């Protein structure tokens, strides 16, 4: 029998392959020993772990305000809530993102308006423009799988309609696009520190903001009661009354803040490894004509923690089979759109948004995104990947593509507009 390229498990965060150094553990241990786990105690803001973490984030991202919170979802919701949109306001967001993005819009009292993604799975700005109306009160942009969205184009639409932009930068901490960190282009940027992200505290997140008053509201909403929001300002705080806002207890605790802050020291190294592994693999499969590797909106605007490629000329069934063949070779590949895998990054699985609609009716809402996702394969590239792991990945992709090409004429390019998709059946 044919021998698999690798038998070792493919390294991913949920198997413990995380970029955490023993040195990083000293700070949370000390925070535990201090027995002061709540961020708002008798200490001065700058003497708390959360305060220090926020200061480091401000420096790193070059933003005036940062707030550590309990999750990326909470950060997106706070970014929107602090804009005080009217209840039920339409908020545009892409159809390719984790289900947490539309969920956060709902948490903030809004209604998601789904926007198409282009063939590179980026927010389709032309579709955004088509769907804009006075009822759309904000845009949530997502830098999905560490690829920057086209921020100048999206901001131009937002400016034309005079509406705010919140960036779901959860998957993209450390990514610089056009000289600026993702998450710092819009009115607010949301990040996560869940284990699969650039900083790993198990769960957690943070929000960055430009405007001091919006930030003050976000701080109160996150659970800073009885004047505690004022501690976040070195000078006079904005004149808001905190009793005007509900308290959602989205605060980050001291132990996680200590860990996240410690991990920031190694973030540049993590980013270097991701980029160098990704570029190496992409270079080594560049000659495979049937594969279209996801392209960035501007050269270099990706992190490299996920390899997404499309097989644009074959049916969804074949894409699913290619992903299965890669898994048999020992690589955790996933066809993004597979009937047997309810992937919550595909909008048709957000049934909570479309009660009463059939999957086919939901897919028909974004036909282009449906088609592009039906061709896509997603492979996680952990920062713990060694060169040998990358070589396995290259060998597995080459082997599967060559084998399928020799046994299936259907892997040869066909006209894109006659592509069958599972959902068309
Ligand atoms: C694009 C995107 N947005 C939001 C989230 C939610 O982040 P969290 O799990 O920290 O709430 C995720 C989680 O992976 C995500 O990928």
UniProtKB/TrEMBL annotation:
GO biological process per UniProt: polysaccharide biosynthetic process
Keyword Transferase in annotation: yes
Active site: 197 (proton acceptor)
Record key words, sorted: Aminotransferase, Pyridoxal phosphate, Transferase
Modified positions (N6-(pyridoxal phosphate)lysine) in chain numbering: 197
Top-level taxonomic group: Bacteria
Single GO molecular function: transaminase activity
Coiled-coil segments: none
PANTHER family for the chain: DTDP-4-AMINO-4,6-DIDEOXYGALACTOSE TRANSAMINASE, TRANSAMINASE
Family: Belongs to the DegT/DnrJ/EryC1 family.
Protein name per its UniProtKB record: Aminotransferase class I/II-fold pyridoxal phosphate-dependent enzyme
Species of provenance: Dyella choica
């Amino acid at each position: 029998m044919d021998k698999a390229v690798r038998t070792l498990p493919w390294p991913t965060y949920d198997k413990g392959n995380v970029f955490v150094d023993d040195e990083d553990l000293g700070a949370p241990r000390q925070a535990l020993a201090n027995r002061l786990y709540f961020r708002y105690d008798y200490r001065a803001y700058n003497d708390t772990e959360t305060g220090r973490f926020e200061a480091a984030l401000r420096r790193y991202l070059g933003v005036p305000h940062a707030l550590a919170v309990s999750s990326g979802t909470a950060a997106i919701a706070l970014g929107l809530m602090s804009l005080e949109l009217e209840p039920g306001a339409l908020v545009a967001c892409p159809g390719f993102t984790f289900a947490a993005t539309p969920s956060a819009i709902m948490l903030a009292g809004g209604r998601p308006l789904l926007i198409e993604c282009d063939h590179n799975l980026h927010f389709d700005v032309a579709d955004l423009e088509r769907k804009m109306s006075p009822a759309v009160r904000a845009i949530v942009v997502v830098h999905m799988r560490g690829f920057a969205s086209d921020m100048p184009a999206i901001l131009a639409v937002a400016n034309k309609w005079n509406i705010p932009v919140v960036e779901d930068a959860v998957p993209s901490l450390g990514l610089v696009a056009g000289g600026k960190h993702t998450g710092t282009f819009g009115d607010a940027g949301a990040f996560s520190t869940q284990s699969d992200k650039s900083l790993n505290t198990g769960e957690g997140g943070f929000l960055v903001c430009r405007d001091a008053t919006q930030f003050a509201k976000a701080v109160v909403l996150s659970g800073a009661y009885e004047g505690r929001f004022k501690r976040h300002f070195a000078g006079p705080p904005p004149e808001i009354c905190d009793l005007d806002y509900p308290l959602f207890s989205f605060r980050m605790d001291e132990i996680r803040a200590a860990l996240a802050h410690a991990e920031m020291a190694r973030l540049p190294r993590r980013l270097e490894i991701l980029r160098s592994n990704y570029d190496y693999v992409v270079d080594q499969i560049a000659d495979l004509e049937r594969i279209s590797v996801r392209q960035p909106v501007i050269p270099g605007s990706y992190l490299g923690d996920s390899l997404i490629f499309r097989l644009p000329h074959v049916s969804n069934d074949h894409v699913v089979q290619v992903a299965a063949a890669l898994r048999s070779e020992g690589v955790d590949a996933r066809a993004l759109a597979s009937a047997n895998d309810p992937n919550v990054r595909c909008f048709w699985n957000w049934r909570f948004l479309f009660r009463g609609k059939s999957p086919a009716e939901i897919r028909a809402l974004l036909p282009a995104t449906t088609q592009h996702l039906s061709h896509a394969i997603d492979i996680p590239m952990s920062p713990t990947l060694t060169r040998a792991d990358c070589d396995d990945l290259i060998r597995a992709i080459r082997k599967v593509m060559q084998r399928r090409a020799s046994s299936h004429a259907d892997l040869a390019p066909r006209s894109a507009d006659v592509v069958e998709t599972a959902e068309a059946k």
